């Protein structure tokens, strides 16, 4: 993947997955605009990338406002002369069950993830269409947005909305040779470390212990396991790929399906409540769709260290 001469913006790239994406893009030759709300994290990210021989600069600002999106694109053009790639990664969590979720909890997460993706993509797409040289837009989704997750109403709504926007933007930007795709990552981060089930595996990996069951069955690895997909989708090799949701994590690479009708049935004259009630179980009962991420019980020998039973 040769990205020499390309310029990328990665939101939320001061640490974690975003930093891994920024470093991987730089490793393949791209100049990177790092973004974070934390000045120290942003400065450290730039120092890491330049220390590795890459080119980077930082914009310290929260995503969501149009002003931040404008500043990011202007910085890319002013610092490096162009814009080829946008990765919308910035995000926050405010997890709690529906009946305890405040308006602020909901609005904060939706503003950063959903509005932040919208404003940044709108600004980048406007520039890319005007420049006439195509481009790559990569939006970060989540398994929660694909299947739901307990306690994450706000996050699920935002991430599902992102994938819906990706499909729409892929249609709208096709004539401009701008591809738009979603990445659905699974990786050890500060967010997953709040979940004891996942933390035991990330802790084991940090100690250098192999965790093959988690990598294969849970698709659970580290941020570097995800970053290669972002570099690929940013490259010329992915010029014909657009409107897709691609999952990655641990040892797994997967293509998510678009929502589609699973079973259809017809009745002359249409359906009424009584006829639906009479036929629903026979028609659909065995094909009802699962909600939430399946969490298989690990065998005893898959549990790391002290977690083994």
TrEMBL record:
Residues 6-194 form the Ketoreductase domain. The keyword Glycoprotein does not apply. One of its GO terms (molecular function) is oxidoreductase activity. Keywords: Oxidoreductase. Signal peptide: none annotated. Its EC number is 1.1.1.-. It is an enzyme of class 1 (oxidoreductase). Belongs to the short-chain dehydrogenases/reductases (SDR) family. This is SDR family NAD(P)-dependent oxidoreductase. It comes from Georgenia deserti. The lineage of its organism: Bacteria, Bacillati, Actinomycetota, Actinomycetes, Micrococcales.
């Amino acid at each position: 993947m040769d990205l020499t001469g390309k310029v990328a913006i990665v939101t939320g790239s001061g640490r974690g997955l975003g930093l891994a994406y920024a470093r991987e893009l730089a490793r393949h030759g791209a100049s990177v605009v790092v973004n974070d709300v934390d000045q120290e994290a942003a400065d450290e990210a730039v120092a890491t990338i330049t220390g590795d021989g890459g080119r980077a600069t930082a914009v310290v600002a929260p995503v969501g406002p149009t002003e931040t999106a404008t500043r990011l694109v202007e910085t890319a053009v002013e610092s490096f002369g162009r814009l080829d790639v946008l990765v919308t990664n910035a995000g926050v969590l405010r997890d709690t069950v529906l009946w305890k979720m405040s308006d602020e909890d909901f609005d904060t997460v939706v503003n950063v993830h959903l509005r932040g993706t919208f404003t940044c993509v709108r600004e980048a797409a406007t520039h890319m269409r005007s420049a006439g040289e195509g481009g790559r837009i990569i939006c970060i989704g989540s398994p929660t947005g694909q299947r739901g997750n307990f306690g994450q109403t706000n996050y699920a709504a935002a991430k599902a909305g992102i994938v819906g926007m990706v499909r729409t933007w892929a249609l709208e930007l096709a004539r401009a040779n701008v591809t738009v795709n979603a990445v659905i990552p699974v990786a050890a981060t500060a967010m997953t470390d709040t979940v004891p089930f996942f933390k035991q595996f990330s802790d084991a990996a940090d100690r250098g212990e192999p965790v093959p069951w988690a990598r294969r069955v849970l698709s659970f690895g580290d941020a570097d396991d995800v970053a290669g997909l972002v570099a690929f989708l940013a490259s010329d090799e992915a010029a014909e790929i657009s409107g897709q949701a691609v999952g990655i994590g641990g040892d797994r690479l997967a293509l998510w399906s678009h929502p589609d009708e699973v079973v259809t049935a017809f009745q002359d004259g249409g359906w009424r409540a009584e006829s639906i009630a009479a036929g629903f179980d026979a028609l659909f009962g065995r094909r009802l769709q699962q909600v939430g991420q399946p969490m298989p019980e690990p065998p005893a020998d898959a549990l790391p260290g002290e977690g083994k039973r």
